[in-house]
Each structure stands twice: as structure tokens, then as C-alpha cells.
Amino acid sequence: MTSLGEAFRARSWLFAPGDSRRKMEKAAASAADIVIFDLEDAVLDAAKAQSRTMIADLLTARPADASRLWVRVNPLDGPHTLADLAAVVAARPGGIMLPKSRGRADVERLDHYLSALEVAAGIEQGSTKVIVLVTETAEAMFTTGSYRGAPRVVAMTWGAEDLADSVGAAENRNPDGSYGFTYELARSLCLLGATAAGVAAVETIQGDFRDLAGLRARAERVRRDGYSGMLAIHPDQVEVINAAFTPTLAELAAAQEIVDLFAAHPGVGALGHRGAMLDRPHLARAQALLASGGRA
Question: HpcH/HpaI aldolase/citrate lyase domain: which residues (predicted)?
């Protein structure tokens, strides 16, 4: 099991289709914290073999970026996953995104595959990280709390489109554009599952990449809820996401004030501050905010 889950932080996770070297290079040159070369939804079956080679070549050509260049492989219940892994692991991607995970058993199976391929390639066993897509099927909704201690997992994210297909829904949004109850439930279960597992919670994509104002509002809202990053489908979304998940100077100053206040009163469980009562959960949130802002 990797020990990096709790410490792993990334704000923006940018997808790039694995069948386009130009788009992958553009994504890699962006300010995204993580770039995910996609072998699943973005690539037709007939193009998967060529895309694997293209991704492996690009990973090999950019060793300095290795830690931030990840690959989304195909689901474990299909015919492509082993071929995906065999093609890309030796090129040392920073991590693997596992789609349509049905629960902890899928991660454990992926770990076995990765371990064998790492040993064969002379890579440190266990060093390839994993982010799991945990709500893409109806079955998976019931296992979001099963990932605590799962090998390699450093982050969890969720998806609404595949879930809608899984349940046979005609639409996953309300008339006002917000997600329907089932999909808000998926978001909550992902957050709770990630928290229980001690790993990062990553918000799903916003499909309308031109609506940057809407993206900003949504990203800021889910950060307040506890999410630490968000998936992106276009480079224009990256700057907005990075800003939304970066604490402001005012937020950092307020958090530092709370930490300093408790430090000045050791052994005290609750303190009055600016007309409000602060207790230990307020201190914990302030410390977490400072850590996420690089000021542990």
C-alpha cells in the first residue's frame, strides 16, 4: 500500500485524448497539476493500439514531467485494460486512473497487474499511484466507502454521465441545470468515501468548457464542501480551477490567526474570537487550510 494518499494534493486534472499527440502535448504544456492521457472514452476501439504506443512514446520523451502525466486505462471488466497497462507502465506514468471501479476488489486486482509490470520494467514496486472513478455504475455507488487502505489509491473522483447510462436515465440534470438527486448523492458519497479512505476528493468535469464563470462558482462551492481538486476537459478550464482551489491570502491569514490563537492558549478547548466561539474542529480546519496553501 502506498503511504502517499493523505499527503497527495492536486488542484486541476486535465484530460487529453490519447489518439491526438497534438492535444496531449498541449495539455502537458499547460499549468494543470495533473494531465491524464485518456485511453478510455476518448479513443475508439480501432485506435486503441496506436494510442497506447503514442502515449508511451510521449511519456518516454518527457521524463521531467513523469509525476504529473497520468493515464486513464479502460475498465477492468472489458478486454483492453491489460494491454493498456502493458503498453504504458514501462514508460513510467505518474499514475493510473481506473474508470468504472466497482469497489476495493478492482483496485486490488489493478495493484497486482501494476506490481508485476513494475517489477518487469525495473520500476519501484508500488510507486505508480491510482485515482479511482467510484460512481460510474449503480453497483459502485454502494462501495464508495470500501477504499480505506486500498493499495496505491491517492484520490477518488466521481462521474455523472456513465452513472446516468447505468440507471437508464434520460437526463441527469434538473431544469435549472443543477444535478438531480442521484448525482448529488454520487458527489456526496465520493467525498465521504475519500474522507474515510484518507485520500483526496476530486470533483467531476464541467462539460461546458466555455462557461468559465459557472466553472469558477462550482469549483469554489465544492472546495467549501471539502473537495481538493477538479477534473478538466479543456486547457482553458485549468487556470480557473487552480485559482478556485488555491486558498486566498485572506483565507490563509484568517487560518493563521486561529492557529496562533490556540497556540497562545495551550490546553484550552474553546475560545471566543471575533464574536464567535471556536473549538478544536475550527483549529483542525485552519491547520488543513494552511497545509494546502503550502504553509504547514
Answer: 11-235
